[in-house]
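Backbones bend. We report:
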Amino acid sequence: MFWQEDEDKTLPYQASDDVLDVSFAIACKQLPLDHAWDLAQAVQQALPWFADEVVAGVHPIHVAESGNGWERPDDASNQFLLPSRRTRMFLRIPKSRIPETQALVGTTLDVNGYAVGLRDMKEKPFVHTSVIFARYVLSDAAEDENSFLQRMAAEVKRVADFKVKKMLCGKSHALRTPQGVLHTRHLMLADLDSDPSIRLQQYGLGDGRKLGCGLFMPHKGIKTLKPTE
């Protein structure tokens, strides 16, 4: 007989902090909506070690999907973000690189001609949540949803040694690079145990970390408050 109990999530859990996110308050008037490539180049120019760190990644800068009459368009061509004073830029780094990353405070990145001033770095360790979400996971343009999810389930097994119970993919986006357009999908994983949740946040899925792809973040639960609903 093989019998595996669900994890008791009420027990204390100490998450590994070998890899973590750091965030910066930014001073930026506007930024092209599709800025992943240019921001990655600016960060790697400022931090020469960044490109060689496998787990290091750059989260594209986001503002609210809608607000003050603005809604994020599906086609990012010739569209701009208007970051607010509360908008922050996030980097995923090994903990050992915190002192070198701190040196970015007070500097200004040149993101293909758009200035992004950095200040007030804060550390944001991962939390053991059962639901995690990535805004961008690389997908082949011809790959249908079922094929994508099957490939991701195999990737989760490889990275975190965990059999996926619940997984949803959502919006598709295109990221511009000098080598061509990269196709991505939103991806949410649910009902994760603590260890695979932390490992997936640390190591991600697929390629493209420097462009923000495969970077998971904690997400609010998807269960209803009343199981009967």
